Amino acid sequence: MGRRSRLVCLLRVVAAIPVVVAGAVVASYLLLLAYSPLLRLKWFSDKTRRFTKTANGPMRKLAGTRLGMLYFNLGALHHVGRRSGRSYATPLSAYRLGDGFVFGVAYPEVDWCRNVLAAGKCTLTWNGNEYALEGPELISTAEAMKAYPLLVKPFIAGPGTHTFLWLHCADSTESVEVK
After folding, report:
1. 134 contacts: CB under 8 Å, gap ≥ 6
2. In the chain, how many domains are there?
3. What is the mean pLDDT of the chain?
4. Among residues 73, 92, 120, 170, which one has the fewest Cβ atoms lying within 10 Å of its Cβ?
5. Which has the closest alpha carbon to 141: 168, 113, 162?
6. Sign of the four-CA dihedral 69, 72, 76, 77
7. Could you give the CA distance from residue 31 to residue 12 in angstroms, rounded to a whole number?
8. What whole-number distance in Å separates Cα of residue 94 and Cα of residue 76?
9. Quick one: which of 63, 92, 66, 90 has its CA closest to 79?
10. Single pTM value for the model
11. How far apart are CA 142 and CA 107, in angstroms?
């Protein structure tokens, strides 16, 4: 009897694991969803922006990899500073749209967006591939929303993102495998 009850207990624990994982995923999604509208408040948005500049270091390691795709399609946008001439890598969520990618511009004053618009080109490392991008265009929310999956749209609408940058792939080969 002791052996059988231990086996039953073990089976209950194993059966509970998917329920606990699913609950954690749902709870995380709801917490992030509750956080999004707070970004409409300027002071909160400014604090978040300062924090993300600090968090970009560790996120750069994840951005552009297949693992980074699990976090809102995280890619690494490589661009050159319009004044400094320095090379930058900015972790951003990138979604396919037409012949290129769309990026949400979360804050009114964003250096990476200004740099890309000034240069007219950049490179994106996304899902283990590298894409040469050119022809940046600011597009409407309605046009950009076509690129976003249903579960991601609330994170775009919540903080009130109204500016989107669309970049087109520079060549017909579209990507080069990153080693």
Report:
1. 120, 121, 122, 167, 168, 170
2. 1
3. 83
4. 120
5. 162
6. positive
7. 28
8. 9
9. 90
10. 0.71
11. 18
